[in-house]
Fold this sequence. Notes:
Blueprint: H1 4-39, H2 46-56, E1 67-73, E2 76-79, E3 90-96, E4 99-108, H3 120-161, H4 167-184, E5 189-192, E6 195-201, H5 206-223, E7 227-234, H6 240-255, E8 260-263, H7 267-275, E9 284-286, H8 289-299
Parallel strand pairs: 6-7, 7-8, 8-9
Antiparallel strand pairs: 1-2, 1-4, 3-4, 5-6
Amino acid sequence: METAEARLHALHEELTLVRGALGEREQELGCVQAFHDLTRRDTMPLGELFQRMVDLVPLAFLEGEPIAARVTIADQRFVTPGFREADGIHPTSIVAGEQDVGVLEVRRVGDSAGEESFSLQKRRFLALVADCFGEVVQRRFAADQQKRLAEELEAERETLQRGNHEAEERLHLIERMQQAILELSVPVLEIWDRVLLVPLAGLLDSRRAAQAMDSVLAAIKDRQPRFVLMDITGVLVVDTATAGYLLQIAQAASLLGAPLLLTGIRPNVAQTIVSLGLHIGDVRTCANVRDGLRECMRRMGRP
């Protein structure tokens, strides 16, 4: 029969493994938050941004497990110390939109066991990291496209003011451009397995709220997420109408089976909500995207 001492020893070993797994998840969550913060630095030079991001990759692995990484995008390479061409490299494609734009390569320093040396959880994490690189490429492309569209809009308005005889046709063009800018302003990103992120910034009026509603519901239908995080860190003003829009989006998402969690409520926005006596119903709120993601993982029963 198994002695009490043997059972205690087995329980101790199991607890050690659980603690180690929790430590890995905590490291990965920290890196996810750091990647998310970096992807928002739209003014940072792209080369510096990519180098900072690739330097974060080894931090998600346990100490004593030396990791080297390399990212190749548009014939430019960004590496961490110790990376060399050898067996044991795990490649992950970087996709922006639907196009392959580069590759993330990770290897254990001195290891030659091949891709099997990385667990399924680590491969999923590396896929998420590759998605972050793809998001940066797509965001920079979208920012450039928005800038070009805004410049074209201004040029078209000036032409209309001069009484151009093609005014009606160009007005239709302006409307199409405005719709394109509006669609680009409400991205829906998959930041974890079956967890979507909808970052909002600026003024949330009725037109933009309708676009956010359409984008969220379409993403829920296509991707079948378990949860949706709506981050309003960049929303500067919340009044009765804005609170109503957020509540409508949350209710619609819940009806489709994807509860919505609201993150990033700024202190001044919280004061406004309280002072105006606004109600956001039963919508769950979290301090930031990291806490929201952690809450989603807790509800899904993941460590």
